[in-house]
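Incident log, support desk, overnight shift.

02:14 A customer reports that sequence design results differ from what the structure should imply. Their input is reproduced verbatim below. On-call engineer (initials T.W.) acknowledged and began investigating.
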């Protein structure tokens, strides 16, 4: 479950503080972008599909966007993420 994974991550991160956990299941790692700007961490996951059928083209698009403010005293250079 998501809560069990979160607990496991929290216990394995010892001195590191976990700022956020996002479920990006169904997205390829290269479809996930993380940027840090103006003391905010922005996570964007975008998935686009295009299928050609007898009736023409169909498009499938989904995205998740989350913005998290950095806690006071944390510099953008300290931010790390993993998928």
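02:41 Re-run completed on a clean worker. Output:
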């Amino acid at each position: 479950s998501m809560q069990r994974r979160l607990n496991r991550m929290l216990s394995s991160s010892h001195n590191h503080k976990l700022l956020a956990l996002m479920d990006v299941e169904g997205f390829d790692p290269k479809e996930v972008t993380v940027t840090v700007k103006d003391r905010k961490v922005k996570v964007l996951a975008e998935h686009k599909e295009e299928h050609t059928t007898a009736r023409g083209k169909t498009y499938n698009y989904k995205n998740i966007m989350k913005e998290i403010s950095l806690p006071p005293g944390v510099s953008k250079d300290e931010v790390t993420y993993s998928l």
